[in-house]
Backbone:
């Protein structure tokens, strides 16, 4: 039974209300023709993902296929440099090189339980497309990935990976030929194939229940951190947790089990591109206003008449004109602090981590690292930073820009 007060409540950080709201943000703003698909998910997702046999299969794949738990690594040299105790949560060591696989496995298993044999996804940089294509190969499911024509040109290695994995990559030729057009194509496909198809969204964005569902799949990150930190320091709680935010799924995952611990300071880092006010940035909380993007109400970079502004970041994974509704709520309520890092700051931080620890981070994760320069850290403070992915995919950019 859902009580009246719960029905009307404003949702908590970890749990939106039944309409999918976190405070003033969230909901499900979808065309009538998608109602059935989204409603089927909403009615079933909690029961399915907390079913014992689902959890067994999910956890077993995370362990034996992805390689979880990912290490929590005390980074001694970078700690000395910043006079603090810095722990890196090594999502870069996951199979396929980032945190996205945690969600892809969860959603594809869920689709299986709902009897869907065909998986669709949209992708910008291709990381989410590769994770989804990987899991579809593993499960023997048909996979169709929509991708803007421009992104197909820019991200050739990931397109090749998806095709080798057996996925069909469909070029989105409309509009700016990037992520938002790929999303439109995916939605159109889903409307036309409601019975056999599941749409895998790659971040804590989209209509309810996606943000909550993706946050729950990624929450494995902070579940592990609490245990690992306890084993290494005798306390489950750090002073600070830091993560980069594109849509916000790695941040949601590493924040999740600390959201109700007021002593833990949460720091989200957005991409400032060439500078917040340069006109080439993706710093949504600095520039955005309330609007509807991809099916939910959140903060969106838009013009006064509601046209989405084309974002810019050197890192493809942060090049998104919005943030998920949980993050909009964390920002508005002040529960999390939002910082930003420019392209150049991220590049410098990537080089610094590489030289001090022998770890080449993804450009996205390098934005989180850049926040270390902006925080007043003390040597008795424990900081956990989400190293969301590895830098192999960014080597081209690093070689061109770092001299
Ligand atoms: C996609 C991606 C991100 C950004 O997505 P979030 O949903 O904000 O986590 C961050 N880091 C890496 C390595 C990525 O591939």
Residues:
């Amino acid at each position: 039974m859902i009580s009246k007060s719960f029905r009307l409540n404003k949702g908590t950080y970890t749990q939106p209300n039944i309409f999918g709201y976190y405070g003033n943000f969230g909901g499900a703003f979808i065309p009538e023709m998608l109602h059935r698909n989204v409603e089927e998910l909403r009615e079933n997702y909690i029961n399915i993902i907390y079913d014992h046999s689902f959890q067994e299969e999910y956890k077993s794949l995370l362990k034996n296929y992805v390689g979880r738990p990912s290490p929590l690594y005390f980074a001694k040299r970078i700690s000395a440099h910043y006079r603090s105790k810095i722990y890196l949560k090594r999502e870069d060591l996951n199979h396929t090189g980032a945190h996205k696989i945690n969600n892809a496995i969860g959603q594809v298993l869920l689709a299986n339980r709902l009897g869907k044999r065909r998986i669709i996804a949209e992708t910008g940089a291709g990381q989410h497309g590769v994770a989804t294509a990987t899991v579809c190969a593993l499960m023997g499911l048909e996979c169709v990935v929509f991708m803007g024509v421009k992104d197909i040109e820019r991200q050739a290695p990931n397109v090749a990976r998806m095709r080798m994995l057996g996925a069909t990559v469909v070029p989105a030729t409309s509009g700016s030929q990037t992520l938002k057009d790929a999303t439109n194509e995916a939605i159109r496909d889903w409307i036309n194939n409601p019975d056999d198809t599941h749409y895998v969204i790659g971040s804590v964005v989209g209509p309810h229940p996606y943000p909550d569902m993706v946050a729950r799949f990624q929450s494995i990150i902070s579940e592990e951190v609490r245990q690992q930190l306890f084993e290494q320091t005798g306390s489950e709680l750090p002073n600070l947790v830091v993560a980069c935010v594109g849509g916000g799924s790695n941040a949601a995952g590493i924040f999740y089990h600390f959201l109700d611990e007021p002593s833990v300071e949460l720091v989200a880092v957005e991409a400032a591109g060439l500078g917040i006010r340069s006109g080439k940035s993706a710093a949504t909380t600095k520039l955005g206003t309330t609007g509807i993007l991809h099916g939910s109400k959140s903060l969106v970079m838009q013009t006064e008449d509601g046209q989405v502004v084309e974002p810019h970041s050197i890192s493809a994974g942060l090049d998104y004109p919005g943030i998920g509704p949980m993050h909009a709520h964390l920002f508005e309520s002040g529960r999390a602090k939002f910082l930003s890092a420019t392209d150049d700051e991220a590049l410098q931080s990537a080089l610094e981590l590489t030289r001090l620890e022998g770890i080449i981070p993804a450009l996205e994760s390098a934005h989180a690292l850049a926040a270390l320069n902006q925080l007043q850290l003390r040597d008795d403070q424990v900081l956990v930073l989400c190293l969301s992915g590895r830098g192999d995919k960014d080597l081209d950019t690093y070689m061109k820009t770092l001299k």
User: Anything to note?
Assistant: Residues 98, 100, 127, 203, 244-250, 317-318, 362, 364-365, 388-389 surround pyridoxal-5'-phosphate (CB under 6 Å).
